[in-house]
Amino acid sequence: MDITQALPLLGGISPQQFMKRYWQKKPLLVRQALPQFTPLLSRSELMALAADEDMASRLVVQQPGKNPGWQLKHGPFQRKALPPFKQAGWTILLQGVDLHDESVHQLMNQFRFVPDARLDDVMISYATDGGGVGPHVDSYDVFLLQAHGRRLWRIGRQKKPVLQDGVPLRILNNFVPEQEFVLEPGDMLYLPPGYAHDGIAQGECMTYSIGFRIPKKAELARELLQRVAEQAEDELGEVLYRDASQPAVAQAAEIPAAMLAFAHQAVEDALKDPLALARGLGEYMTEPKPQVWFEALPQEDEVELAGCAVQLDRRTRMMFDQQHIFINGESFLAAGRDAELMRLLANQKSLSAKELQKLSKQAQKLLAAWAVAGWLHLI
Ligand code: SIN
Ligand code: CO
């Protein structure tokens, strides 16, 4: 992607300018980010997805005059389990639609000026008149693309968010909107994390949220330390703690200082491999989402790469760093021309037949194995 090229998607500024001025900093409203946009999925296609076991979906129903005034249910939902379309004030939210639909996946790809490691998913919401999830704050960045109908967005910086008690949703009690906009199909609003917002459907409405993944420090520490420890298991072997010089103790409950020193050494040794953390990070970031499964080819299917181009399956996560190629939770050391071509595959999600020819026999074998696993497809 040419990151210096001005895009209608970003209101006539380039990805480079957008990242510098707005990303994680302030909201941006873009009128006609996608001119003449029409929904990629019809209402009935969305309702069919809501019934799908593999789809994470939520139904939020406003209950005026009742306490609590909101009801939240988790899917899957058969059509008859949903309120009638004539009933105002309900919304259904479908998470990860990009994994199920190629056109939604392609829409998400337009936002790949942000690293794949940050891009999360496309959530689609369908709402009847007045529907929404109430004023709230998200901890992630989001592009809110209006796909069908109109939605009123009220937004504001929220200094000290206070949540409503006794409701099943995270709804702000003290929301103070500072700006409001009505979005029409093709309009888009970018919000940085922590910016309070409330979207109210004006008539039947569909909104696509391009959402981002924000790793938490604690989550990374937990994940990576565990992975590093597992990787180091062979290296550290069965080394046992020895305490031949342990004197007799009067305070038996006290942990020996020597044991703490042994523990320090164990962690240090596990981290000794300079690539261990990078490997763990890449494997973690490319781990497929829990609901993802690939359609593997029967093992005996001979995959013949010659003359073919390849394309990554839309569910495949492929990334790289200076030393590695990562794909769906696995890591490979790569250098030279193979590394260059594998990086190309990760960036453009495909390789032409000509590019494929330039891979070493060993790398071609790997690609064939990925094709058998359903991680990529021959075209
Ligand atoms: C919605 O589409 O109704 C909610 C999106 C959001 O507020 O993040
Ligand atoms: Co939100």
Layout of strands and helices, then pairs:
Layout: H1 15-21, E1 28-30, H2 43-50, E2 57-62, E3 70-74, E4 90-94, H3 102-109, E5 119-127, E6 142-157, E7 179-183, E8 188-191, E9 195-212, H4 217-231, H5 233-236, H6 257-270, H7 276-285, E10 310-312, E11 318-320, E12 324-327, E13 330-333, H8 336-348, E14 350-351, H9 353-357, H10 361-373, E15 376-378
Antiparallel strand pairs: 1-8, 2-3, 2-4, 4-5, 5-9, 6-7, 6-8, 6-9, 10-14, 10-15, 11-12, 12-13
Helix pairs in contact: 4-7
Bound molecules: succinic acid (SIN) and cobalt (II) ion.
The site of cobalt (II) ion has 3 residues, from loops.
**Ligand types:** succinic acid, cobalt (II) ion
| pLDDT < 50 stretches | none
Beta-strand segment tally? 15
Mean pLDDT, rounded to whole units?
Answer: 95
Question: What is the CATH-assigned architecture of the largest domain?
Answer: Sandwich
Instruction: Encode the helix/strand succession as letters.
Output: HEHEEEHEEEEEHHHHEEEEHEHHE
Q: Major β-sheet, in short?
A: 9 strands, antiparallel
- Globally, the shape reads globular
Q: Regarding CATH, which class of the largest domain? A: Mainly Beta
Assign the structural class, choosing from mainly alpha, mainly beta, alpha/beta, alpha+beta, or little secondary structure. Answer: alpha+beta
How many individual domains?
3
The CATH H-level superfamily of the largest domain is Cupin
Distance between the termini: 22 Å
Q: Which percent bin holds the helix content?
A: 25-40%
How much is the radius of gyration in Å? 25 Å
Q: What's the CATH topology label of the largest domain? A: Jelly Rolls
* Count of separate DSSP helical elements: 10
- Percentage of β-strand residues: 15-25%
